[in-house]
Specification:
The protein is α/β, with parallel strands linked by helices. Helices cover 39% and strands 17% of the residues. The chain has 15 helices and 13 strands. The strands form 3 sheets. It has a 6-stranded mixed sheet with strand order 8-9-10-11-13-12, with helices on both faces. Strands 2-3-4-1-5 form a 5-stranded parallel sheet, sandwiched between helices. Strands 6-7 form a two-stranded antiparallel sheet. The protein is globular, with a radius of gyration of 22 Å.
Amino acid sequence: MSNIVFRYLENPIQNDILKRMAFIGGPRQVGKTTVAQNLSKSYNNTVYLNWDSRNDRETIIKEAWNPEADLLSFDELHKYEKWKSYIKGIWDTQKEHKKIIVTGSSRLDIFRRGGDSLLGRYRYYRLHPFSLREINEKSDYNVAYNKNMFQLKFPNPAKGLETLFKFGGFPEPFLSQSDIDLQRWQNERFERIFREDIRDVENIQHISKVELLGHLLTKRTASPLSLASLKDDVSASPATIIKWIELLCINYFIFKVPPYHKRLERALKKESKYYLWDWSEISNDGDKFENLLAVHLLKFCHYQHDIFGIRCELFYLRDREKREVDFLLTWNEAPWMLIESKLNKPDNVKNINYFSQKLKVPWSYVVTFSEDADYIDKQTKCRIVPASKFLMAMA
């Protein structure tokens, strides 16, 4: 697996930059620059410029690159105050003979949406960490986008699930597969998110409290988040904690999975669940596996939207009687698939069967980390399937 080079978004981006600019967002160290470099191999004269480099910054401002360049790649360009009018001017005057890629993390996503003068000139892609399918398929693949054609088409278990479970999906620790490298990488990533990225977005006086919140959230994934308990632990008001949680989402430390309540009269409507982008930081195996599954499902949703324009969204289900199912995928707002996470074979499938009937959901799966269970429940028609098979149908 150490020779993984191709990333799953490269072919869609390669096709789209013939007509529009490509903006690539995502977490720090997820591989955005590598994607841009891989795409540049198809062009004769390419230029890569990083706003964080003093020399590159001067080249950008003066537009002093090789005039024969046919592909321009800008990294962290959104840190330039006038970046939107700048990139718009280049595109409007040179789009016939130059292709443009812009990469960046949290601020790119924030700033591209604020007064979008670039509308119609670019496609936006969210690059995710490695998934099980990506590490097993070294070439391009298309994830079926017809909701009626979802199928577990890979008959044999995929390799690499335990490695992915332990080291996470970010390229550097996954490819290294070293416990020491993983620990050092986690520390460095935490430091950069909290000491650099968050300060870039907003001036936070009590950064140590935000760091404490980040540490606490690594132990509170996979359950609806109680602001009341966090208020005491962090010594901050609920309103402040909500603001900080949003910052952690914007900066790709966590992501939110809200409760689904449409068409469910007694559904929970307030408390969301939060998951880490890097599940390797979680110590509890059950929570860690649920988090791994959540990241795979979110990647699938973003893939469907960014590539095919389909509104595929991720929720969880819980009602006032405390019946709960870990995940619900909706397809253009209609309930489409229920997924429950289990380390081993489930004792029963009552909850997933209840919600399946209530919402008339066509697909129901209990996904297990263990390879020992692979069958269809005769009474409910719910499919119990190992993650090594199920995740190969995701992006």
